[in-house]
Amino acid sequence: MSTITKPILKGRSFLAERDFTKGEFVYLIDLAEKLKHEKQQRIPHRHLEGKNIALLFEKPSTRTRCAFTVACIDLGAHPEYLGKDDIQLGKKESIEDTAKVLGRMFDGIEFRGFEHKKVEMLAEHSGVPVWNGLTEQWHPTQTLADFLTVKENFGRLEGIKFVYVGDGRNNVANSLLVGGALVGMDVRICAPKELFPEQEVIELAESLAKESGAIVTVTDEIDKAVAGADVIYTDVWVSMGEEDQFAERIALLAPYQVNMEMIEKTGNDQMIFLHCLPAFHDLETSYGMEIYKNHGLAEMEVTDAVFRSSHSKVFDQAENRMHTIKAVMAATLGNLQ
Ligand code: CP
Q1: Ligand 1, closest atom to CA 65?
Q2: Which of 200, 225, 228, 295 is 20 to 30 Å from the Cα of 260, by its Cα?
Q3: Ligand 1 pocket by C-beta < 6 Å: which residues?
Q4: How far is residue 253 from each of residues 171, 235, 237, 246, 260, measured CA to CA in Å?
Q5: Which of 12, 47, 63, 112 is catalytic?
Q6: 302 or 335, which is more confident?
Q7: The pTM is what?
């Protein structure tokens, strides 16, 4: 555990990296490390005994849903899953009214959906902590898991050469750029110019970097971006809801595929490969087969060789979703000593 002072996070929501100080964000990663150790050693950590947690999902999920569910149960809380057809959220009942109702019954609310505004409204009107399980703009619980995985491999976050390659304007790229700048990484977004992050996100990262000492780079030059990389990270080329854009994205992103040639260009034997998952690295999914039939690609954003290589830490990263989400809920709702 780090020696940093424990910040007061009780009652806070967790919506985006930009809402937290470096100390607060790093504390959540350190707390996750502690909770992971306690889980492995079977040491009880029931910081949410008797609490009820609503899990709102407008989109499908494997990792986030399972992580919140298991984390709730380990912490002594009851998770209640509410899918897009289970409640009226925004359809026959406003977000504001739904938030007020949920806040009368639940102690905390997780939300996965489209517009970031919705999770902000839930936080504004529910009166209980709200946690962002992914919106179109940000995926902050993913960033915590990613950075815990980095810390487990390198023992630190500051100065880590963290390279995200691919669609530079999706929620994961936004979160990594701002999160990396917050904690003081050498964070690089490598994408075709058409898929650079929005200027507002770059400017936010640059302003955070001035305080943390981070280095922020956005480039379309692959060799320059991956030189000396400690981490290469990628995500799917087409996010949920953008499936009609496959042909265009493949044309733009094919040169940015993470393959063994790219890994060798880092010149770093100790580098790790990360991916938030799910990944299209083979033909073992119906989705992957459809892309193969329509576009002739058997592997997309990452090759099977990289995905299965010793550099790949993607399943540690997936497990860390649970430990970090547990830390967020415990810190914002629990009675931590
Ligand atoms: N990485 C991630 O958010 O996974 P899920 O979509 O399965 O939750």
Answers
A1: 8
A2: 295
A3: 61-64, 134, 142, 276-277
A4: 17, 11, 7, 10, 16
A5: 112
A6: 302
A7: 0.96
